[in-house]
Amino acid sequence: GEKMAARLSGGENRLVSLPLSRIRVIMKSSPEVSSINQDALFLTAKATELFVQYLATYSYKHGRGKEKNALTYSDLSHTAEECETFQFLADILPKKILASKYLKMLEKEKRDGEVGEDDEEDEEEEDEDEA
């Protein structure tokens, strides 16, 4: 515990890149959390860092940014949409659409009720046709 805490207190040889103070604030924002053990804080930071690396690497390898030697937002949103592991991020990394297209969707929603349900049914029907 103490050795780890000493290593975390700064310097070039930090084991985590993310700021522990920020992570502590985020963890404390949960009503169930009263106190945070230093090791738990470190492990949460390290796990978060590794997760972000994995998301970025996966998105880069499977995205179009590879052609330009860059990781793009659309690579990340495509990963969130297509890869089951990352689907819980779909609301956080939505696909970018043009404002005009969004306004048309809102108008259609007002006319037809819920858009989302209709779209999902259409996609399922298309999948069946291909099979």
TrEMBL record:
One of its GO terms (biological process) is DNA-templated DNA replication. It is found in: Nucleus. Its main location: nucleus. Residues 115-131 have a biased composition (Acidic residues). Residues 17-78 form the Transcription factor CBF/NF-Y/archaeal histone domain. InterPro entries: CBFA_NFYB_domain (IPR003958), Histone-fold (IPR009072), Transcr_DNA_Rep_Reg (IPR050568). GO terms for molecular function: DNA binding; nucleotidyltransferase activity; protein heterodimerization activity. Keywords: Acetylation, Coiled coil, DNA-binding, Nucleotidyltransferase, Nucleus, Phosphoprotein, Transferase. It comes from the Eukaryota. Heterodimer with POLE3; binds to DNA. Component of the CHRAC ISWI chromatin remodeling complex at least composed of SMARCA5/SNF2H, BAZ1A/ACF1, CHRAC1 and POLE3; the complex preferentially binds DNA through the CHRAC1-POLE3 heterodimer and possesses ATP-dependent nucleosome-remodeling activity. Within the complex, the heterodimer with POLE3 interacts with SMARCA5/SNF2H; the interaction is direct and enhances nucleosome sliding activity by the SMARCA5/SNF2H and BAZ1A/ACF1 interaction. Within the complex, the heterodimer with POLE3 interacts with BAZ1A/ACF1; the interactions are direct. This is Chromatin accessibility complex protein 1. It comes from Pandion haliaetus (Osprey). The lineage of its organism: Eukaryota, Metazoa, Chordata, Craniata, Vertebrata.
